[in-house]
Amino acid sequence: xxxxxxxxxxxxxxxxxxxxxxxxxxxxxxxxxxxxxxxxxxxxxxxxxxxxxxxxxxxxxxxxxxxxxxxxxxxxxxxxxxxxxxxxxxxxxxxxxxxxxxxxxxxxxxxxxxxxxxxxxxxxxxxxxxxxxxxxxxxxxxxxxxxxxxxxxxxxxxxxxxxxxxxxxxxxxxxxxxxxxxxxxxxxxxxxxxxxxxxxxxxxxxxxxxxxxxxxxxxxxxxxxx
Length: 226
Hints:
This protein has 226 residues and is an alpha/beta fold. The protein has eight helices and five strands; from the N terminus they run βαβαβααβααβαα. The protein has one domain (6-221): HUPs (Rossmann fold), CATH 3.40.50. The protein is 37% helix and 11% strand. A five-stranded parallel beta sheet has the order 3-2-1-4-5, sandwiched between helices. α1 (15-26) links the parallel β1 and β2 (30-37).
């Protein structure tokens, strides 16, 4: 009797990571969803991540608490204003203040540790380098370098038992293409959350980079965002 391959899926509760989880599930993986409470100001995304994980039948949804807020240095983890109403031109230049130092490196390290324990050789992460290229840890060369490092650093890699693969199916997709893929995979849009600076009532601000990019993607795809 054969069992499905296990995959660790990084899940923030946003559109991209939810689409990745849906894709991994469709491809037949037994999915283990991993989310982080890292001191982010938009912590309500974790509630929706749990609902998304349940919706797609994840084998387990683990929320790990790590204290990136202790370091600050980002508008997402410190008392720094989140940029609002930026143009597409402004968003295309430089590294924004919403970048959290070393976040994906830390997230992938936790995913790698869990994958080793599970006996998994597959990690899914919803990084995207096309519509939002300002984050250095969303670039293809970063993912390639991390994957090489991971296969040098793990017991399975050293013993030649398995080779870890970091799957980035959204890496070169526009936000509109991600929306179209999410619709095809029947991702419940109303359970996904993309805002960096929600109000006290939990509603998206509508003006941060994440909100604007999401709106642009849905408009270009001709899909209603519920």
